[in-house]
Amino acid sequence: MTNTVLTVFALAGLLGVVSLMLPLAERLRIAPAVLVAAVGCTIGAIIASMHGAAENSVANDVLKALGEFNLRPESFLFIFLPALLFEASINIDVRRLFEDLAPILVLAVIGVIVSTFVVGIALWPLSDVGLLACLLLGAILATTDPVAIVAVFRDIGVPRRLSTLVEGEALLNDAAAIALFGLILAMLTGEAEASPIGAAVKFLTDFAGGIAFGCFMGWLACRILPGLSEHQLAESTLTLALAYLTFIIGDQYLKTSGVVAVVAAGLVVSGQGRRRLPPSNWEALTRTWGQIAFWASSLIFLLAAMMAPKSLANTSWLDLALLVVVILAATGGRALTLYGLLPGLTALGLGQSVRNDQKLVMLWGGMRGAVSLALALAASENTALPVEVRQFIGVLATGFVLFTLFIAAPTLRPLMQHIGLDRLSPAEVALRDRVVALSLSTIQEDLGRIAAEHQIDPAVTEEATRRYQRHLHAASEIAEENAQIEPASRLHSALQILVEREREFYLEHFDARTMSPRAVATVLTHAGWLRDATKTGGIAEYHAAVERMLAFPAYFRLALQLQRWNIERPLAAELADRFEVLLAERLVVGELQRFTNRELEILFGAGVAETLEAELAKRRSGIEQAIASLMLQYPNYARKLEQRLLTLTAIRLEHERFRRLLDESIISTEVFNDLERELTQRRRAAERRPRLDLGLSRAALLERVPVFAELDPKRRRRIGRLLKPRFVVPGETIVRRGERGDSMYFISSGAVEVRLPAGEPIRLGSGDFFGELALIREQPRNADVVALGYCRLLTLARRDLERAFKADGALRERIHEVARERLRPHGEAA
Question: 94 falls in which pLDDT band (50, 70, 90)?
């Protein structure tokens, strides 16, 4: 067979072997990576000892193909690493990663450096390959692979934070270790200067450059992905191209860390993609990447493990002694980071503390896997390195990885069970028992009805429903338990459930295509604020987060400032976004109210439900007020958005009905596809959000102010050239008491409140003006003026006031008349 055929044959054979490992690993209750490595070692031993097999047998050809399968050193890095790193990145919850960013960075970056130097310095006096080769081995072994340990986590259940710490550390740790590996390898082969300062500067610049380039590529991909939401295959293809293009361009063209760039791009896609893609699309994307990463990691494990018998065939007693040193040094270096650096970080207030039992699991669970094997293969097959260095790295790296897989991984489960990390907290146990009892309480009744419909013998029915009889009185039992639990504890648990359910409601609407990606990105951010607030506090913190959601963010303020420079589009977009977000949150708050009445009241009691209902009612009232303020200025736009929401909802209901008709074989696939094409066209048309016109044209605003509306068109146009439109938001202070007045204001629409130093505030509405006294009298402002709602104003600067008076004497007289009135006792001031 030709080389091409042999290569395809070898890969197909390896994948065939891998496919059988998953069910077998599940049956044996071990991590698949451990079993794949064991099978690889067995295949490698068979190939090494194979003699005299029949020339034309399939078995002989498969083993021959596997034995002759060979990749160049850089192939391991360029083929496998981008896939492994990108898949790990997009599966990280970025918000949770940032919550524990400080300890993760210490473990991943400082920990990698510490581990590399501890291993390198420990081996240096005992080997004859030199310090750089020892450090290269240390960098290879500094990477951790969460695959095996996370498989155990999911099987027995552990605190979510521990899983986040392990996965986050493994991801960033790989990026740091691979960047360090590349730097040390370049120094060993003479491609880089062997200077400690130069190496440190190179490492930092490569790392920073990789982050910058990766973030840019991830941002660019996130701008394109929403446009592909109708084509899941295109989304997967784009991200595949993203991973490899980012790696190659960063590494080969920009001379920065391609590994770090891939990780950064993946994290950006993880953080933004979840908000920009419908949940079903995101699930399909991560499933595709899970398959790609599974192939990549499995092939690396098999290829490296197949080489293990050959690499370890000439192992000497000195190599075994060095392997013991490596195990002790790697464990010691990791322990130094966990038990030495992390407590200092906590003491400085830079991170949450990590419990000692979690540290122990992270210490023993620091598996080395696909990335370590890929780096070891790349180094041991690199002909630019001396033979003794390649042998040194091949033996010790392979031996250490096999130790973590065959010794540490199988003993991790018993360790976690021994220290109790597989057990739920008392609060979690109580909540689990309540939910289960409540869910099972109606099953006996349901089974009885089904048995009657199918005319099943009552004796059989009684036997089948016996285990559910004890749940019949679940509701009353839960009520009794609630009476024994502190109300504050029940309220906190219920509030956390409510916050998580809110996030799920938003994702459901997004998946149903009734919310735009822009709106979902905002409401999910708001849901994150609520989750953070309830995590650290209670109702008061929840309420503060709600107030923050209704406030105007910094970028909205920036858009307001741009409008004052006659750049209106950003403000129009922000107002349209606010409209859509408020409508979405009003919808979901209503669903949360029903969820509280339907589910939480039964689980936590009427008192807790009433507290939550009161908070949700206040929240809905605030949202309604915010919507009403917008509708006063833009009623037609509000109607268009509400109509758009109903249209998208109707399209979703049509799709569900057509799908049900297809499933029931009432319509054919051809008819369904034809109906779907029509729905797709209508959905695309409905998803195009109408553009918001701020209504700030001078002509329209002038006509709404009586002192200008009475002028003839020519004089109105002349004065209009002196006026500038201005948009203000509720609560915005337009003028402040004591400041120098440089403008006066005419209210075209909206209302403001004049707050005097003494006396009741005075309200002004459409057609009124204020701020003229400071200009006429050339004195500081003597009152605050605050917008009561959205207002459209016309601003007349001090320098243009006299020109306006000269252009129209009636305007001058009218403004002076009002000024004289306001200067009388108990008059207004502004």
Answer: confident
128-132, 234-238, 444-448, 693-697: range with lowest mean pLDDT: 444-448
H or E element that contains 322: helix 317-336
Q: Which of 415-429, 432-446, 705-719 has the highest mean pLDDT?
A: 705-719
Would you give the distance in Å from CA 358 to the centre of its chain? 24
Residue 282: DSSP 8-state: H
pLDDT for residue 709 is more than 60: yes
CA 90, distance to chain mean position in Å, is 8
Residue 156: count of CB within 10 angstroms of its CB: 13
pLDDT of residue 156: 45
Work out the number of other CB atoms within 10 angstroms of the CB of residue 756: 17
Q: What are phi and psi of 810, to 5 degrees?
A: -65, -35
Report how far residue 622's alpha carbon sits from residue 615's, in angstroms, rounded to the nearest whole number.
Answer: 11
Segment (H or E) for 786:
strand 784-787
Reported confidence tier of residue 641, pLDDT bands at 50, 70, 90 = confident
Q: Is 636 exposed, middle or buried (0-12, 13-18, 19+ CB in 10 A)?
A: exposed
Amino acid in the structure at residue 103:
P
Q: Transcribe 20-83 into DSSP letters.
A: HHHHHHHHHTS-HHHHHHHHHHHHHHHHHH--S--TT-HHHHHHHHHHH----HHHIIIIIHHH
Sign of CA dihedral 36, 39, 41, 44: negative
- Residue 555 structure tokens: 């970028």
Do the Cβ atoms of 604 and 490 come closer than 8 Å?
yes
Amino acid identity of residue 86, one-letter, is F
Closest to 341 in 3D by CA, of 98, 118, 114, 165: 114
pLDDT of res. 469: 66
Q: What is the pLDDT of residue 336?
A: 83
**Distance between CA 492 and CA 489 in Å, rounded?**
5
112: nearest Cα among 171, 167, 176: 176
d(CA 391, CA 386): 9
CA distances from 353 to 159, 161, 349, 412, 691 (A): 14, 11, 9, 22, 49
756 Rama class: left (phi>0) / alpha (psi -120 to 50) / beta: beta
Stronger pLDDT, 2 or 173, i.e. the higher one: 173
Question: Which residue in this structure is represented by tokens 């013991």?
Answer: 324
- Alpha carbon of residue 109 to chain centroid: 22
Compute the half-sphere exposure of residue 698: CA atoms within 13 Å on the CB side of its CA. Answer: 13
- From CA 136, how far away is CA 192, in angstroms rounded? 14
How does DSSP assign 168-183, residue by residue? HHHHHHHHHHHHHHHH
pLDDT 10s digits, 520-536: 888 888 888 888 788 76
Q: What percent of the chain has pLDDT over 90?
A: 7
355 contacts: CB under 8 Å, gap ≥ 6: none
Q: Give the distance from CA 491 to its chain's centroid.
A: 27
How many Å apart are CA 527 and CA 538, to the nearest integer? 15
**0.85 cut: is pTM over it?**
no
More confident site: 712 or 6: 712
Q: Which residue has the tokens 């407590």?
A: 343
What length does the chain have? 830
Average confidence (pLDDT) over 597-605: 80
Q: Please give the distance of CA 367 from its chain centroid, rounded to a whole number.
A: 26
Average model confidence (pLDDT) for the chain? 79
Half-sphere exposure of 488 (CA within 13 A, CB side): 3
Of the candidates 243, 262, 245, 255, the one whose C-alpha atom is nearest the C-alpha of residue 172 is 262
Do the Cβ atoms of 420 and 160 come closer than 8 Å?
A: no
Tens of pLDDT, residues 101-159 = 777 777 677 778 888 888 888 888 888 888 888 888 888 888 776 555 555 455 444 45
Residue 474: closest CA among 506, 498, 503, 438: 438
Tokens, residue 682: 């209508």
